[in-house]
Known about the structure:
- The protein is α/β, with parallel strands linked by helices and 276 residues long.
- The protein folds into two domains: 2-118 and 135-210, Dipeptide transport protein (Rossmann fold, 3-Layer(aba) Sandwich); 222-272, 2-Layer Sandwich (Gyrase A, domain 2).
- It has helices at 18-21, 29-50, 136-146, 158-167, 190-210, 231-237, 258-272, and strands at 2-7, 54-59, 76-79, 98-104, 124-129, 132-133, 151-157, 172-179, 185-187, 222-228, 244-245, 250-255.
- Helix 4 links the parallel strand 7 and strand 8 (172-179).
- It starts with a strand and ends with a helix.
Amino acid sequence: MKLYISADMEGVAGISAVEQTNPVGQPEYPHSCRLMTAEVAAACEGAFEGGATEIVVNDSHWDMRNLIHEDLPAKVRLIRGSLKPLSMNQGLDASCSAAAFTGYHAPAGTADAVLDHTYSGATAYEVRINGERCSEARINAAVAGFFGVPVIFISGDQNACADARSFLPGIEAVVVKEAIGRYAASSLSPEQSRAAIRAGMKKAVAASKSARPAPYSFATPVELELVFTGTAKADVASLLPGSERLDGRTLRFRHDDFMMVFQAFRAMMTLGGSVE
């Protein structure tokens, strides 16, 4: 069984501030890398115990150079670095039996959610697909679903987990901290969070081997509405062929193929992020 893990940082136990997650000149950031790596390692250990035979981990936070490779189990393959075509989903394909998300956070605009955002808080005010507000977890679960891969596990704060359960009711969700607003949380100790993640992943992998859950997908046609944080960002992103401007900050893109919608989303976010 091949397991895919997309690893983010904001949902890791003990993390509650941007300064902890920013790799540019922040003294707390190296410690956050150690916390993130230890949770991913625990997830991998639990997955192997549950019956996984192969694990691919995609570093999915910021510049995507956060995980300490030598601190992961020796059999784990790590995808590291940015400018990846599938971004947080690089390495996902039909050869994977299941996918898991560690250190994830709630979507932009969620109350009591540590560092809530969707792909880029500086660029996107809100992301909606088929009228539903979307988290990174929901978007990425649909990418996994495009390849026929179910998502079986998530870890993060209480609202990241509640969000995932809202569209993946059978998911194994491990709450490692209770958010108190955007910049504070009551967190499990690192040891407790790792133990919970290891046990949860073991359970999720073992269960998926006996009863494979259905992959997640959006109904077609798929309609993306991307609300930018500023009008200049929408000005530039509207250059994407096929996009439709709904108002000063909102663009719409429709297609029957979800992967085309995801690629349009990535392109509009990149264009919008290129200006202030």
